[in-house]
Amino acid sequence: MRLRGRKGIRESLESQPELVVLDATPHKGKWKTFFGNDNPIYVELGMGKGRFITQMSVRNPHINFIGVDMYDELLRRASEKARDAWAESGVDSPGNLALLRANIEHIDTMFEHHEIERIHLNFSDPWPKGKHARRRLTHPRFVEKYREILNEKGEIHFKTDSLSLFEFSLNSFADMELIMRNISLDLHRDGPREDLVFTEYETKFMEKGQNIYRVEAVIGEEALRRHREAKDDSQRSEDDYSKASEDQQ
Fold first, then answer.
1. Angle at the Cα of 200 (from 198 to 203), degrees rounded to 5?
2. Residue range 24-35, pLDDT digits in tens
3. Average pLDDT for 168-191
4. From CA 121, how far away is CA 47, in angstroms rounded?
5. Which of 38, 72, 92, 125 is catalytic?
6. In 10 A of CB 164, how many CB atoms?
7. Is 125 one of the annotated active-site residues of the chain?
8. How far apart, in whole angstroms, are the C-alpha atoms of residue 65 and residue 95?
9. Where are the alpha helices (DSSP H) in the chain?
10. 142 phi, psi to nearest 5 deg
11. Which long-range contacts (CB under 8 A, 24 or more apart) does 102-105 make?
């Protein structure tokens, strides 16, 4: 991707240290110090223009968010979106958002073991050629890195418009023996999911009537325990309903 940035873009980014992080190394293992609290940290890898991560930070003030991308111009656009969104919500700066310039290949240099609670992968580059499979962000070599930085409540939330990438990702998660839930082959079939935040790409795809594919991979031990409890509760409810129906017959 080639982006034509505005003149003075680096100076603009450097003037926003409370929002824009140009070097993750000093913050590895210390992101809660950066945010000044112990709230959970959610990360979007490949944030693009920043609509998703910005809106998430506004909607969820008790969660810290980090949007990661490697292009200065995208960080600039995301910073503008963030400030516009905060202004609309009547907040000067909520303090729960960081925009990080970094290459995802080096994610292990950005975050410490078990430092992150959730990873969002939204409309990642599908890299359709087989020879480029290792570059896909759901390839096992990346998933192994995610497992290292995710904590006991860790999850991966993945959305894409590419069926081939979705199939690849499901197989990748299965090969890594991850538990998957909320698998959707047409996320907005019954209308826009207003409980979810849309990315720029997602809005365009929805307008064209394209399917959006989504899955959540459960990784952390606490997340797995909660998932199993929810399944057990659901099964008990189904059993109770079946028994009640039989009694009425």
1. 60
2. 999 999 999 999
3. 94
4. 8
5. 125
6. 11
7. yes
8. 10
9. 9-14, 31-35, 51-59, 72-88, 140-149, 163-175, 200-207, 221-248
10. -80, -45
11. 102/24, 102/68, 102/69, 102/70, 103/70, 104/45, 104/46, 104/68, 104/70, 104/137, 104/142
Q: What number of other Cβ atoms are within 10 A of residue 197's Cβ?
A: 19
User: pLDDT tens across 124-135, in order?
Assistant: 999 999 999 999
Give the position of tokens 């307008």.
Answer: 207
**What is d(CA 176, CA 190) in angstroms, rounded to the nearest whole number?**
32
Q: How many of the other CB atoms lie within 10 Å of CB of 99?
A: 27
What is the DSSP code (8-state) at residue 16? Answer: -
Mean pLDDT value across residues 82-110: 91
- Is residue 134 within 8 A of residue 57, CB to CB? The reply is no
